[in-house]
Write a structure and sequence with these properties.
The model has no long low-confidence stretch (mean pLDDT 90). Helix content is 41%, strand content 24%. It is of the alpha+beta class. It is elongated. Strands 1-4-2-3 form a 4-stranded antiparallel β-sheet. The protein contains 4 helices and 4 strands; from the N terminus they run αβαβαβαβ.
Length: 118
């Protein structure tokens, strides 16, 4: 059993244990192989929705004329932060895409109501 298979089996056992405790939702931070892990969770019957995003900061020209969310990213970069983590709404995601700011989901809300324990 290689490391990837071990991590997948460990995650499945943790989710089964949480379901047996009676929990319907679990929040997990997934850092490695996000797309593969999400597809595995959905294959097991769960549903994962991102709740926390990691945003890579960058500077912009003429920061005073930018929208508020972009100003926050600009000034975080000026303060020396490489990345910031926060929740994003759909309109904020489209705004970040418009300004070519890279963001990725980090923390997920996993719905265990249809999770299979086999």
């Amino acid at each position: 059993m290689n490391n990837r298979n071990y991590e997948d089996a460990k995650l499945k056992k943790e989710l089964i244990a949480e379901k047996r405790k009676g929990k319907k939702r679990v929040q997990r931070r997934i850092n490695r192989n996000v797309n593969q892990t999400i597809s595995l969770i959905e294959g097991w019957g769960g549903r994962a929705t991102p709740i926390l995003y990691e945003i890579t900061t960058k500077t912009f020209k003429n920061a005073n004329s930018l929208p508020g969310e972009i100003k926050d990213i600009h000034f975080a970069c000026k303060a020396g932060k490489k990345r910031i983590c926060r929740r994003l709404k759909e309109n904020e995601k489209s705004l970040l895409k418009k300004f070519n700011v890279y963001f990725r989901p980090v923390k997920f809300d996993i719905n265990l109501t249809n999770f299979l324990h086999s």
